[in-house]
Amino acid sequence: MAEKRASIRDVASKAGLSPSLVSRILNRRPTAKSIPESTRKWVDECAAALKYTPNINAKRLFSRRSNVIALVLPSFENRLECIFYNHHLAEFFAGLEPALAAVHYRLMLIFNDTNFVAEKEYLSLFRSHAVDGMLVWGACDGENYWSELADEHVPLLFLTSHTVPGCEFNYVDHDYRTAGRLAAGELLRQGCRRLGWIGGTAGHAVTREMEEGIRCELEAAGGELIPEYGNYQPEQAVACALRLLQVRPAIDGLLISNARPAQALLMRLRAAGIEAPPIAACDSCPPAVEENLLPRVIMDDRTLAVRGVEALVRMIEDNTYRIAWHCPVRLIS
Length: 333
Known about the structure:
Elements: H1 8-15, H2 19-26, H3 37-49, H4 56-63, E1 68-74, H5 76-79, H6 87-103, E2 106-112, H7 114-118, H8 121-127, E3 133-137, H9 146-151, E4 156-159, E5 171-174, H10 176-189, E6 194-199, H11 205-221, E7 224-229, H12 234-244, E8 253-256, H13 259-271, E9 279-284, E10 296-299, H14 301-317, E11 324-327, E12 329-332
Parallel strand pairs: 1-2, 1-3, 3-4, 4-5, 5-11, 6-7, 6-8, 8-9, 9-10
Antiparallel strand pairs: 10-12
Helix pairs in contact: 1-2, 1-3, 6-14, 10-11, 12-13
């Protein structure tokens, strides 16, 4: 006959503790952190002695939890570029793995493609208890279907942008307004007053918030902003910059939404023998620090990952918890 499988109650009996306390420890609930380490160690020893292993299906049935977090990323069909070339996302994953391990959650990676929307997978994932919470990276204007999840009061947290008009969603993002102010302030300190601005997609939350910060800084100094919009690709940034350099009266400084196209632009202008005005980038990743000599604002995506996971787990454990947090940014000149 097969050996009887040890249960939570068996472990609790051997440890001399309540089943609910033992369950918190063995299931690695965040609330177990408040239990003395000696008690947690004793429970683990008892579980090992009884060869206890958790019954995943029973765990999901009774707790209605999967211990899985979904991460929704933009699909190639939406952006026409591979999201994994995004340097911010690479830094984010570097912080995401240890953050998930610390709270004992696993990750389900999902792309926000046609089926995800048409089949309402964003709803079915929660209703089937396949995931306990959802992180959304890079939401765009017009994605109004997120309001359906907000109406169901599920643990939903936006990263980097939150863009549904009229809805106050939970989010952890970078302080894009401050990024715009810092970059504009750097050029103002260099004596520039008529600035060209190469933003990302017009109307997108990130571009919009950066521009609000830039305009606020310029207004206080009596400066002027001449905008161009494209995307974050170097080719478009170069094309936008060349148009701005033809504007009359001439611009005397140039702000670019991202450091990599800014660096590509500077190299292109130098190769063509064109004198570049002072340039500053509103956004850069830590790996770009050594290779990019332009003034730039650094954004910490690892901290964004840690705070995002911590916030979402707290939302899962306490469905009344709400968060709106901006990750601090800093200027390197």
